[in-house]
Amino acid sequence: MSRKLLWCMTWASLMLWPGLVLAGPLGKITLQDGSQVYGEILEMTEGMIQIKTLFHEGDPIKIKWPEVAGIETQEPMTFVLSNGTILQGKPAMTQPGTLDVKTELLPEPIRVQVGSVLAVNPPVKKAVTFIGNFNFGGSVTSGNTDLKNFSFVGELVARSERLRLSMLGRYLYGENGGELNARNAYGTIKLDFFVSKRFYVYTGALFEQDTFQDLNLRSSLFAGPGYQFIDEGDYTSPYLAKMRLHGEIGLGYFNEDFKQAEDINYFTGRWAINFHWPVLPWLTVFHQHQGFPSLEDTKDWYVTSQQGIRMNIWENFVTTFQINWRYDNAPAPDTKKADTQYLLTLGYAFES
């Protein structure tokens, strides 16, 4: 075999090597400093693009999306833009920070700014996702001191493309020397229907019992519009990617059934805020509150809230410190307007 033929076969093998090594098509990522990375471009989610390169074994390399100036492939890719548009086509960098995406539907490529891309080849979303947590706290002391305290807090959110079901419940019980000193329960359920990506209408109910507020049952049925100000995936920063914030206003009916005092009921307005921020993979900050102002008497209004931090301690096991605050501006006689609860619990969080 001649040297010339051997050299040609060797060169051809080197040119074909990337296609033999990589499971998918070869692509190129150009970074802001001008350097280039070749390999199989997998996906970009949560502000990080993953690429399987020739020179790195093991897990794919992750590159921060703000460091990317452009990408090029010979195979179609899916791009999710910040305005909600989804494009599928072959990308090519025309200039740093700009992509031309060639689709099958249009003769001319669509120009896209790299900074407007929220995801590349995102995983297929499940029809329904579930997020929730269950937390328990308690202490028992016997001997010279006889104390019993128990608490339970649970939350579940089920979300599909159009619907979101939210449920929250908690129960607290305490004894001192065999005498009851705390017993109250709280629960809400709410169903949201998304008219658009951000705007939705909802209906829900609140139920609450508190022995030491002279309260058999506090209840409210309500409905109205809501708006998703921030949703998961709105930001590319890993510190903000999973932040969620929505607000609501509405109308409803409010009723307080007391044991001794005269019962109260009225038509009410309603406002609510729900904020959920996983700052780090192991640390989440949350705040939820809702208010019920009477439409018949400005002196009658009620506010309830819970806020705190949740920390992962091992796999899905979490510890939570939260503060529950309730304020009734027209309470039963001989009871205080405000109640504050401090809870430290251990629990289990899940997401699927």
Describe the structure.
- This protein has one helix and 22 strands.
- The protein has 352 residues and is mainly beta.
- The protein folds into two domains: 3-120, no CATH class; 129-351, Nucleoside-specific channel-forming protein, Tsx-like (Outer membrane phospholipase (ompla), Chain C, Beta Barrel).
- A twelve-stranded antiparallel β-barrel has the order 11-12-13-14-15-16-17-18-19-20-21-22. A five-stranded antiparallel β-sheet has the order 4-3-2-1-5, with no helix packed on it. It has a five-stranded antiparallel β-sheet with strand order 9-8-7-6-10, with no helix packed on it.
- Strand 13 and strand 14 (179-194) form a beta hairpin.
- It is elongated and about 75 Å long.
- Residues 9-24 have low confidence and may be disordered.
CATH top level label of the largest domain = Mainly Beta
Gap between N and C termini: 60 Å
Main sheet characteristics: 12 strands, antiparallel, barrel
Overall pLDDT, averaged?
Answer: 88
Helix vs. strand class = mainly beta
Taking pLDDT < 50 over at least 5 consecutive residues as the criterion, the unreliable ranges are 9-24
Helix content class: under 10%
Domain module tally: 2
Count of individual helical segments: 1
Radius of gyration: 28 Å
Number of strands: 22
Strand order, main sheet: write it out.
Answer: 11-12-13-14-15-16-17-18-19-20-21-22
The backbone outline, from C-alpha atoms, is: elongated
Q: What is the percentage of strand-forming residues?
A: over 45%
For this structure, the CATH topology of the largest domain is Outer membrane phospholipase (ompla), Chain C
Give the CATH H-level superfamily of the largest domain. Answer: Nucleoside-specific channel-forming protein, Tsx-like
CATH architectural name of the largest domain: Beta Barrel
